[in-house]
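Final report, results section. Input specification for complex C-07:
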Amino acid sequence: MAHMKSKFCSRQAPYSTNFVSCRETDHEPHCIEEKNKDMTILHWHDLATENAVQGWKLVPHGFGAVLEASTGKQWVIVVNTGSDASNFLPNFESVSPTNRAEIPMEAIVLHEGIKL
Amino acid sequence: MCSLRSRVLRPNTLYATVALENSVLQGEYYLASHTLMSSLHGLIHGFIMGSSVTFEDNIASMFFIRRMVHYFHNSLVSNSDLDSSTCSNVKKDGYLRFILEDPSNHLFSFEDSGDLKALFSLFGLAVFMNVLDKRTYRPYIEAGEPLSPDAIAQLQEYDRNTIPYPERRHCAYTRGLARELMIWFCGTYIINDLEDDSEVPHNLLSAFVVHIAVTMVQYKRQAAKHNKYSCCTPEAFEEQVSMSLMGIVEVDAEIEYHYQLEMLDDDDIPDLAMWYLDRVTITLAETPTQLHGRDEDYMLKGTNEADRLFFRGYHRGFKSPTKANARRLERKKI
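Structure output:
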């Protein structure tokens, strides 16, 4: 599985306060200095071959994430981490399928061409 | 299990993927105002546990946090026109375009404690903005140069790190805005206990910040105990947390922080949640506060101890105090 940067810019979505706040504060003190900030940094692509597995990963830096299947089909298994550090300590097995067995999991198939 | 094309994951979510066939997954990160508490927790988990639980990329989420503080300050404090009948803020002159969309998407109505948690978390993110940034712990060196003892000394004496000067100023300015946002909230709303309807004193915010500070330090110590070091030592982290509170929270809160730190049981694995925030209701005050802060004040009010060291060093050209003393002594001899 390869994780690569995308050239798409942020787009407006009902949940993305980051988009609205960046658009509305461009003229504020100190924000002008950041005007040419690269806004493509929030986008990425994951390329996977059949049967490739990515172990448990936390969505980084406090962000939420939107995942969309451009082509092919992938299982996405999701767990809400909560505030408890005991989720990660004393140890955390990122590749163990049973690692998070005690917490309710949700599994979804992301499939190209299907929309809800 | 269901099947669909896209999926929105809340902040602070763990996920794993299995490719059923050759595929391309397109992803985008976002920050939403109503899930800022999850963002705060996710940021702390990711920072302390590092690459063992999350991706190690160089996205500075703090850029977006700074802009969100500006946005909320603009919407709620600077341009506020309080409509008490709906208990929400609506700006009527059409200056900001979000009104033409759906303001309820992003702004807080404070109808439940969820918005209070989000606002407190935004303040927490502003206070600990530098603490939770990896660049804070890296000594400043020119591109291509090796790490020198001078760079390490400058980090210790002036907190000179890889966060550039303009960004450093912006961080201080943002903290000033965040402080005024909280002053506005405390003057505009009353927090009551859900059970007996008694008014909760306004030090709830300080208690929240101190709680996050103490649990972060405890979390970091525990992680180090289990050999999870990420980007800094527990001692460096603790020092940064301590400096981030000085000058930002009230003196009482600082004393409380040091007291709670001394009472910590180092074997406990901490929980970042503050359960008390679930037990409150929020009502509009009879005479809401109107604030009109001045730009120059924000920088001053948002400068914490680490910033003070840095700006002092900046004005001295980051000359090592020990070297400066040595030069003065030499001059005297001549």
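Residues 1-46 of chain A form one domain. The radius of gyration of chain A is 18 Å. This concludes the modelling results for the funded period.
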